[in-house]
Amino acid sequence: MEYYQLFRLARVMQGKTQTEVGAAAGVTHQAVNAYEKGSASLSMETLRKMALSININPEYLIDPSANPFLSQEVIKMEFPENLFLPGLNFQIIYFLAEKNHVLELCFLFSNTRFAKTILKGTIAANPVIAIVCQDANQNIFLFKRRKILMGPILGDRELRLELSKYKTDKKSIIIEDKEISDSLLKKIKNVTATKDELARLFNERNDVVLDEGERLIILEKRKKGVAHSEILRFIDSCQVEQELSTIIKTGPFIS
User: Fold this and answer.
1) CA distance linking residue 237 with residue 235, whole number of Å
2) Would residue 168 count as lying in a domain?
3) Angle formed by the axes of helices 18-25 and 29-36, to 10°?
4) Which of 51, 89, 120, 247 could serve as a FRET partner for 72 with CA atoms 20 to 30 Å apart?
5) Per residue in 13-72, pLDDT tens?
């Protein structure tokens, strides 16, 4: 994805106008429009200011290996609707999967009365209401439908299948379905859920709460890009060494 395409997609999905982004960078909306069309260039300083206004990492502009996004708050995005095909446009999630060595996604659903009110008329079992995503640098993204009443995420099965293609020995795509409470659902609907509240979804997988030491180990693993297979190989080697040590200590041996 070219930079100008990323700027346009990130801006539109975050509900920002060209005028707002231009004002943050001290340029007109006409200048932003021309840049997003790929028909004009802007100074690096202007692009850095524009990037900050839509949570794009300024370092990514000069180093394509850097994480494309950067924010201390939830990056709230609404999926564009496909005009001619059923489902939604998941291009930004595929972009995140391409750029991160680990990407975690929680597909959120709820069976409460409030959820059924939001999803009135939906016949699918446990329809996905929203998607929360955490990248390798612990940026948290909240994705939902561009509707006042939200509605189900259409095409989530296709999204899962497509994301599986990004998995390699050096790239992890972790997907989990998570049932959420009414209180969190209402905050997601009103786009008031905090980063800590959404990050907690990733720290409580399968009812296991990570302690601080375990959390720091995971963060260090992600930072250094260590593959799961390498860690498992290390654990296996430790077990072999432990078993050999036990045999040596207990004997018996034939001389």
Assistant:
1) 5
2) yes
3) 110
4) 89
5) 999 999 999 999 999 999 999 999 999 999 999 999 999 999 999 999 999 999 999 999
CA dist 50 and 112 (Å) reads 40
Mark whether 27 and 78 lie in a shared domain: no
Domain co-membership, 39 together with 89: no
Q: Tell how far CA 90 is from the center of its chain.
A: 12
Shared domain check, 47 and 11: yes
Going through 90-194 in order, the beta strands assigned E by DSSP cover 102-109, 130-134, 140-145, 172-179
Q: Is residue 54 part of a domain?
A: yes
Q: Report pTM.
A: 0.76
191 shares its domain with 89? yes
The domain that holds 26 is classified in CATH as 1.10.260.40
List CB contacts of 217: < 8 A, sequence separation 6 or more. Answer: none
Domain residues for 181?
71-208
Q: Are residues 9 and 77 in the same domain?
A: no
Q: How many CA atoms lie within 13 A of 14 on its CB side?
A: 25
- Cα dihedral 145/203/225/50 (nearest 10): 40
Three-state SS at 102: strand
Copy the structure tokens of residue 147.
Answer: 């509707």
The number of distinct structural domains making up the chain is: 2
Sheet holding 75-79, edge to edge: 75-79, 140-145, 130-134, 102-109, 172-179
Buried b (16+ CB within 10 A) or exposed e, 158-178: ebeeebeeeeeeebbbebeeb
